[in-house]
Amino acid sequence: MTDTAAVSGRSRNLVLAAMIFAVAMTFIDQTIVSIAVPQIQDELNLSNTGVQWAVNAYLLSLAALFAFGGRLADTVGHRKVVVAGVVLFAAASAMCGLTPKGSAAQTWIVVFRVLQGAGGAIMFPAALGIVVQTFALRERGKALALFFGIAGGLTAVGPILGGYLTEWTWRAIFWVNIPVAVIALVLIAVSKPVTEHRPARMDYRGLALIAGGVTLSVFGFQQSQIWGWHNPGIGLCIAAGVLLLTAFAFVELRTASPLIQMRIFRDRAFLAENLILGISMLVFVPVFFFFSEYAQIALGKSAQEAGLYLLYFFLGFVVASQIGGRMLDQGGAKRPVFLGCVLAAVGFYLLAGKVTGLSLSDQIWYVVLAGAGMGMMLTPASTDAVNRASRLSYGEATGITQTVRNYAASLGLAILGTISVSEFRSRLKSSLLDRGVPAGQASAQATDISQSHSQSGGSGGIPAYVRLDFAYSTRTVFYVMAGIMAAAAIVAHFGLRRGVQTELVEPEPAPEDDPAGKPAERG
User: Fold this and answer.
1) Which residues contact 50 (CB under 8 A, 6 or more apart)?
2) Domain enclosing residue 447, as ranges
3) CA distance linking residue 86 with residue 84, whole number of Å
4) CA within 20 to 30 Å of 454's CA: 18, 48, 169, 475, which one?
5) Do 416 and 442 form a contact (C-beta atoms < 8 A)?
6) CA end-to-end span of the chain, whole Å?
7) For residues 426-460, b (16+ Cβ closer than 10 Å) or e, as one string?
8) Which of 73, 81, 137, 150 is nearest to 397 (CA)?
9) What is the pLDDT of residues 190-234, one digit of tens each?
10) Is 218 within a domain?
11) What predicted TM-score, i.e. pTM, was given to this entire model?
């Protein structure tokens, strides 16, 4: 049976549209919350730690549960899981918007952000699995370029829309997901996507290990800028997380029906592409946060104007994503992935050299170039990795790639945040000393200002030297991002081979070989 046969003559474009709307919410929420961070913190009186968790809890939940979502889709049915994920995501979004003021606010919003992430984690692999099974191999690059490109375009709308909605109330940035969810559910009901899945046991032991490992390791890096690296709790959290993830890998190799088939990493291209995705995602999601903070603090822009700054990045991303998808279909993944990594590295490097000039007009083309590089490489790398799986394991393969991507994004936000705060604090202390502030007082003030402005922006009342010092700390972050993308380019050059991938034909196991004793099903 071919992949296209699975749609039984239904409109593939309608199926694609349904899945785009389903995942659009997850893309929008990666950026829209960063725009409203200052308003959320002020109205709910959140601590710096609390507001950072309001941003990162979502990414952390995604990273911890993506593998579970992919496996669930392959064993329960992709359409069922997409619908469940959309409903959970929309309900959690509504509750985030209803966060009460007072002592319960911080716990409330973090808990429902975690549930948002859980909804996205089970929805996304299933949605991508449906798209992959709906389109033949030679058409997937173009289809998934549209999938990621349009979703990325909707992500670009997120910061702009968030800026306008925040002028009314920050709560609306969560409520906007509800109409998107309704459209997705209607399109799913109309298109009725049909895919294949195979019932199997769920590996809850593996789920506990990977969720614990991801959570502890990211928590350690994130808390380092608050507790300080001298605190033994930081090292213990990171070490415990790494140990749990290592245990997860060994347990999965010895589990009959594992959460992740570790043997898939024997495929050189799949391993290389996941390394590339992991390295590049240290940059891709955190860049939204840093763009927003830089625009509001260093440039003194409003939330709306900060959204427009991000739009330049996505203009490059969306256009280049289409080019990368077509290059994948025509000549394989190596050329667009390598070229995209190089363009992104050059873009961030050139951008870093301009941010201290505090002139948006001098930065626009470098922002576009960085976005174009990310768009050109992300779609081909993700698509080619998923294509390495059989049609009964697309959800699992997607779960693996998305686990890698979101775990790296969480780590990137934590690590780059630590670099930003440390550099900002150091420059602030020097600026205060130059202004005659005593050393002890300068150190204390620098710590207070860096913690405050690293989490919230706004132009009102920010001294010129603070804006410039923040720009210098952003410059350091962008130079690090350039180095990270250069490393991804090296992995792409040596890890990927030229040529178009051939269709994977995998014989279906006999029912008695199936862990659950059941053959593949359609639905």
Assistant:
1) 41, 106, 110
2) 4-202+259-500
3) 6
4) 169
5) no
6) 15
7) bbbbebbeeeebeeeebbebbeebbbebbbbbbee
8) 73
9) 988 877 667 777 888 988 998 899 888 877 877 776 677 788 988
10) no
11) 0.77
